Amino acid sequence: MPLCVPTPADDNAPVINGYDTSILPLCARLAARVNAFLETEAETPLLRAVQEQTRVALGVISSALDRYSLDEISLSYNGGKDCLVLLILLLCALATYKKHALPKQLHSVYIISPHPFKEVDAFVDESVATYNLDLARYAMPMKAAFQRYLDEHKKVKAILVGTRRTDPHGQSLTHFDITDSGWPAFMRVHPVIDWHYAEIWAFIRYFEIPYCPLYDQGYTSLGGTTDTHPNPALKAGEGSNKENQSQSFRPAYELVEDHAERLGRDW
Ligand code: FAD
Ligand code: MG
């Protein structure tokens, strides 16, 4: 069953494709599914690892919500699989948020690539509508974009980031790290830092979360059109199943090893 289950919407709630997207019912729905997943030990080692990672990530998000008020927190979102998992977990954590009423939309920020994939931009647009994001978009280098974002959103002090240990620069990060010198100053929060590639996909597929369609074409890490290609490790050939023989690349979720994730990136 997909994670976003249609529910009867109240008269004032925004409805998209029959889904009540107002934020509290959305959070409650997601939390109910995730909590049910966590209640009993999963059957496979991979899903048991996902359960443990989910508990840790929810703990980090809760601690961020203790340390900062919701209007001081933002999410860096580029439509990729890692920040998608992070977004779902943030919404779950907000189901029991007691500090004050939830805002209608969540602070979030997207730095548009100089050569964006239209599929990524379309997926980001979809996410904005589905998950109630107040998304600021900037088409400029990342440091300048975050400086502009902080100038325009003076309350924001902490930004959730979907970086994982195997990403460039991910090796020495912890759950909470102030930005490096030379970067605009804010707290980076990394709830999924220790998730493995396969665990991200197991979460997305277990909950049937819609994701950017490029991942079904063999892209495993999304940059811009000029520096990102389908992952050569997923080239269809011997070993691929019959159903996939007609495609040139197998879907991203078939890759297993963390180190192979960026083989389709030029940097
Ligand atoms: P991915 O693996 O695609 O991204 C990892 C995560 O970064 C995503 O899940 C998402 O949460 C975020 N992200 C990546 N690209 C975007 C984007 N275009 N728009 C919005 N969110 C995005 N580098 C430093 O050297 N020092 C720093 O202090 C520093 N602070 C940063 C703070 C934030 C909030 C972000 C997003 C980046 C920061 N960076 C910093 C840059 C970072 O180290 C990576 O170079 C950059 O995120 C691209 O990473 P990636 O290619 O691994 O992207
Ligand atoms: Mg990533």
Give a verbal description of the structure:
This protein is α/β, with parallel strands linked by helices and 267 residues long. The protein folds into two domains: 15-189, HUPs (Rossmann fold, 3-Layer(aba) Sandwich), CATH 3.40.50.620; 212-267, no CATH class. It has helices at 23-39, 45-67, 81-94, 118-131, 142-152, 197-206, and strands at residues 15-16, 19-20, 73-76, 106-111, 133-138, 158-160, 176-178, 187-189. The strands form two sheets. Strands 5-4-3-6-8-7 form a six-stranded mixed β-sheet. The chain has a two-stranded antiparallel ribbon with strand order 1-2. A hairpin with a 2-residue loop joins β1 (15-16) and β2. α2 crosses α3 and α2 packs across α6 (197-206). The longest helix has 23 residues, at 45-67. The protein is globular, with a radius of gyration of 18 Å. Flavin-adenine dinucleotide (FAD) binds next to α3 and β4. Residues 80, 82, 164, 167, 221 line the site of magnesium ion.
Bound molecules: flavin-adenine dinucleotide, magnesium ion
What name is given to the CATH topology of the largest domain? Rossmann fold
Shape: globular
- Tell me the name of the CATH homologous superfamily of the largest domain: HUPs
Specify the biggest β-sheet.
6 strands, mixed
Number of strands: 8
Q: Domains counted in the coordinates: how many? A: 2
What's the CATH architecture name of the largest domain? 3-Layer(aba) Sandwich
Uncertain residue segments: none
Beta fraction: 5-15%
Q: Spell the H/E element sequence.
A: EEHHEHEHEHEEEH
The mean pLDDT is 90
Q: Biggest sheet, strands in spatial order?
A: 5-4-3-6-8-7
The CATH class label of the largest domain is Alpha Beta
- Rg over CA atoms, rounded to whole Å, is 18 Å
